[in-house]
Amino acid sequence: MKTESKLFLITAVTMFVFAAIYAWSTYNNENPAYGHPDQVEWVGTLALIFSGLLTGMVWLVFWMISRRIDPRPEDRADGEISDMAGEVGFFSPGSYWPLGLALTAVLAGIGVVFWQPWLMATGGVALLFATGGLTFEYYTGTRKVGPQ
Fold first, then answer.
1. pLDDT tens per residue across span 14-43
2. For the CA atoms of 122, 123, 125, 129, what is the dihedral angle to 10 degrees?
3. Is 88 a domain residue?
4. Is residue 86, in this structure, part of any structural domain at all?
């Protein structure tokens, strides 16, 4: 997890540096195309600051996890590709739940776009059912994994 931690730290620091450069470059402009002179353009500046904060939060989680677990082969200097050999995990051979999840998200999104509370509520409830179906797909029914 140290590798991921370093990547997100670099990204977070870069976002803060870009926010400072963006704020400085939009502050002292006499050009009316940039809005009012001697004012920072706050939308882009805050967007970059919040992007840095969000990636900083992910960095913090990865950094805390990397301190608690043993170093993985990709985190060690002497790690080899063969050290990661073996079972990686379980991957679904096929599922229709992602399609249902996408359709219910579109339904809820259309409700938001046209500001129809009944459509937002219907899409939200359907989205919860589709999320539950995707999550528990292999815990019930004929596709149950494990002892039966």
1. 999 999 999 988 876 665 655 566 788 889
2. 130
3. no
4. no
